[in-house]
Write a structure and sequence with these properties.
With 170 residues, this protein is mainly alpha-helical. It contains five helices and no strands. The longest helix has 32 residues. The chain is globular. The N and C termini lie far apart (58 Å).
Length: 170
Protein backbone atom coordinates (compact mmCIF):
# COMPACT_ATOMS: atom_id res chain seq x y z
CA UNK A 1 0.00 0.00 0.00
CA UNK A 2 2.96 2.34 0.58
CA UNK A 3 4.10 3.57 -2.84
CA UNK A 4 7.55 4.72 -1.59
CA UNK A 5 8.17 1.33 -0.01
CA UNK A 6 7.06 -0.45 -3.18
CA UNK A 7 9.35 1.68 -5.40
CA UNK A 8 12.24 1.25 -2.94
CA UNK A 9 11.73 -2.52 -2.88
CA UNK A 10 11.59 -2.72 -6.67
CA UNK A 11 14.69 -0.54 -7.01
CA UNK A 12 16.56 -2.58 -4.42
CA UNK A 13 15.60 -5.85 -6.10
CA UNK A 14 16.88 -4.65 -9.48
CA UNK A 15 20.07 -3.33 -7.91
CA UNK A 16 20.71 -6.54 -5.97
CA UNK A 17 20.29 -8.70 -9.10
CA UNK A 18 23.38 -6.94 -10.45
CA UNK A 19 25.24 -6.41 -7.16
CA UNK A 20 24.93 -9.81 -5.48
CA UNK A 21 26.94 -11.80 -8.09
CA UNK A 22 29.82 -9.34 -7.79
CA UNK A 23 30.64 -10.71 -4.36
CA UNK A 24 31.06 -14.18 -5.90
CA UNK A 25 33.43 -12.79 -8.54
CA UNK A 26 35.59 -10.60 -6.25
CA UNK A 27 38.42 -13.14 -5.92
CA UNK A 28 38.49 -13.70 -9.70
CA UNK A 29 38.43 -9.96 -10.40
CA UNK A 30 41.34 -9.34 -8.07
CA UNK A 31 43.47 -12.31 -9.16
CA UNK A 32 42.64 -12.32 -12.88
CA UNK A 33 41.98 -8.69 -13.76
CA UNK A 34 44.23 -6.83 -11.32
CA UNK A 35 46.76 -9.69 -11.04
CA UNK A 36 46.44 -9.33 -7.28
CA UNK A 37 47.53 -11.59 -4.46
CA UNK A 38 45.56 -13.20 -1.67
CA UNK A 39 46.74 -10.35 0.57
CA UNK A 40 45.25 -7.79 -1.80
CA UNK A 41 42.01 -9.76 -2.00
CA UNK A 42 41.88 -9.77 1.80
CA UNK A 43 42.47 -6.01 1.91
CA UNK A 44 39.47 -5.45 -0.38
CA UNK A 45 37.26 -7.55 1.88
CA UNK A 46 38.65 -5.77 4.93
CA UNK A 47 37.92 -2.36 3.39
CA UNK A 48 34.36 -3.41 2.51
CA UNK A 49 33.85 -4.54 6.12
CA UNK A 50 35.42 -1.33 7.46
CA UNK A 51 32.99 0.64 5.29
CA UNK A 52 30.12 -1.29 6.82
CA UNK A 53 31.37 -0.50 10.33
CA UNK A 54 31.81 3.21 9.53
CA UNK A 55 28.34 3.30 7.95
CA UNK A 56 26.85 1.67 11.03
CA UNK A 57 28.63 4.19 13.27
CA UNK A 58 27.28 7.12 11.21
CA UNK A 59 23.74 5.73 11.29
CA UNK A 60 24.02 5.12 15.03
CA UNK A 61 25.33 8.64 15.61
CA UNK A 62 22.85 10.45 13.34
CA UNK A 63 19.99 7.93 13.59
CA UNK A 64 17.40 10.36 14.90
CA UNK A 65 17.94 12.76 12.01
CA UNK A 66 18.03 9.96 9.43
CA UNK A 67 14.92 8.24 10.77
CA UNK A 68 12.70 11.14 9.66
CA UNK A 69 13.72 10.51 6.05
CA UNK A 70 14.58 6.81 6.20
CA UNK A 71 13.20 6.04 2.73
CA UNK A 72 15.14 8.91 1.16
CA UNK A 73 18.34 7.91 2.98
CA UNK A 74 17.83 4.28 1.88
CA UNK A 75 17.52 5.48 -1.74
CA UNK A 76 20.75 7.43 -1.30
CA UNK A 77 22.44 4.29 0.05
CA UNK A 78 21.16 2.32 -2.94
CA UNK A 79 22.41 5.03 -5.30
CA UNK A 80 25.81 4.95 -3.60
CA UNK A 81 25.95 1.18 -3.96
CA UNK A 82 25.15 1.39 -7.66
CA UNK A 83 27.54 4.29 -8.28
CA UNK A 84 30.54 2.69 -6.59
CA UNK A 85 29.86 -0.57 -8.41
CA UNK A 86 29.57 1.21 -11.76
CA UNK A 87 32.81 3.13 -11.22
CA UNK A 88 34.54 -0.14 -10.31
CA UNK A 89 33.42 -1.65 -13.59
CA UNK A 90 35.21 1.01 -15.65
CA UNK A 91 38.60 0.83 -13.94
CA UNK A 92 41.62 -0.07 -16.07
CA UNK A 93 44.16 -2.76 -15.24
CA UNK A 94 46.78 -1.09 -13.05
CA UNK A 95 48.07 -1.00 -9.51
CA UNK A 96 46.59 2.47 -8.98
CA UNK A 97 43.21 1.31 -10.31
CA UNK A 98 43.29 -1.63 -7.90
CA UNK A 99 43.48 0.78 -4.96
CA UNK A 100 40.68 2.88 -6.44
CA UNK A 101 38.69 -0.37 -6.64
CA UNK A 102 39.52 -1.11 -3.01
CA UNK A 103 38.34 2.39 -2.03
CA UNK A 104 35.13 1.84 -4.05
CA UNK A 105 34.60 -1.36 -2.06
CA UNK A 106 34.90 0.72 1.12
CA UNK A 107 32.18 2.98 -0.32
CA UNK A 108 30.09 -0.06 -1.22
CA UNK A 109 30.25 -1.17 2.41
CA UNK A 110 29.06 2.22 3.66
CA UNK A 111 26.30 2.36 1.04
CA UNK A 112 25.12 -1.19 1.69
CA UNK A 113 24.64 -0.47 5.38
CA UNK A 114 22.86 2.82 4.69
CA UNK A 115 20.49 1.11 2.31
CA UNK A 116 19.88 -1.98 4.44
CA UNK A 117 19.46 -0.52 7.93
CA UNK A 118 17.35 2.43 6.83
CA UNK A 119 15.23 0.26 4.53
CA UNK A 120 14.42 -2.10 7.40
CA UNK A 121 13.71 0.86 9.69
CA UNK A 122 11.34 2.32 7.10
CA UNK A 123 9.57 -1.04 6.75
CA UNK A 124 9.13 -1.29 10.52
CA UNK A 125 7.81 2.25 10.64
CA UNK A 126 5.30 1.99 7.79
CA UNK A 127 4.03 -1.60 8.03
CA UNK A 128 1.66 -2.54 10.81
CA UNK A 129 3.37 -4.76 13.38
CA UNK A 130 0.82 -7.53 12.79
CA UNK A 131 2.15 -7.84 9.20
CA UNK A 132 5.87 -7.71 10.02
CA UNK A 133 6.29 -11.48 9.75
CA UNK A 134 4.76 -11.58 6.28
CA UNK A 135 6.61 -8.50 5.10
CA UNK A 136 10.02 -9.67 6.28
CA UNK A 137 9.42 -13.19 4.91
CA UNK A 138 8.62 -11.65 1.53
CA UNK A 139 11.71 -9.46 1.74
CA UNK A 140 13.93 -12.46 2.57
CA UNK A 141 12.42 -14.38 -0.37
CA UNK A 142 13.15 -11.49 -2.73
CA UNK A 143 16.72 -11.17 -1.45
CA UNK A 144 17.23 -14.93 -1.77
CA UNK A 145 16.12 -14.79 -5.41
CA UNK A 146 18.45 -11.97 -6.43
CA UNK A 147 21.65 -14.03 -6.23
CA UNK A 148 20.56 -16.89 -8.54
CA UNK A 149 18.85 -14.47 -10.94
CA UNK A 150 21.98 -12.34 -11.06
CA UNK A 151 24.20 -15.37 -11.56
CA UNK A 152 21.98 -16.55 -14.43
CA UNK A 153 23.09 -13.41 -16.25
CA UNK A 154 26.54 -12.81 -14.78
CA UNK A 155 27.81 -16.39 -15.06
CA UNK A 156 27.46 -16.71 -18.84
CA UNK A 157 28.68 -13.13 -19.38
CA UNK A 158 31.75 -13.87 -17.25
CA UNK A 159 32.40 -17.06 -19.23
CA UNK A 160 32.17 -15.12 -22.50
CA UNK A 161 34.31 -12.11 -21.65
CA UNK A 162 36.15 -13.08 -18.48
CA UNK A 163 36.93 -10.51 -15.84
CA UNK A 164 37.76 -7.92 -18.51
CA UNK A 165 36.53 -7.39 -22.05
CA UNK A 166 38.88 -8.80 -24.68
CA UNK A 167 40.40 -6.20 -26.95
CA UNK A 168 42.08 -6.82 -30.26
CA UNK A 169 45.34 -4.95 -30.05
CA UNK A 170 47.56 -5.16 -33.11
Amino acid sequence: MDKRLFVLTLSATNCMIFFMPITAFYPLMISDYFQGTACEASSVELLYSAGMMIGTFVINHFGNKLQHNAACAAFIGLFGLGSTTLISGFLPKSDAAFWIFAFMCFGMGISAVFYNILYIAYMQETISSKYHGRAFSLLNSIISLTMPLGLLVAGPVFCLIGSAPKTNVV
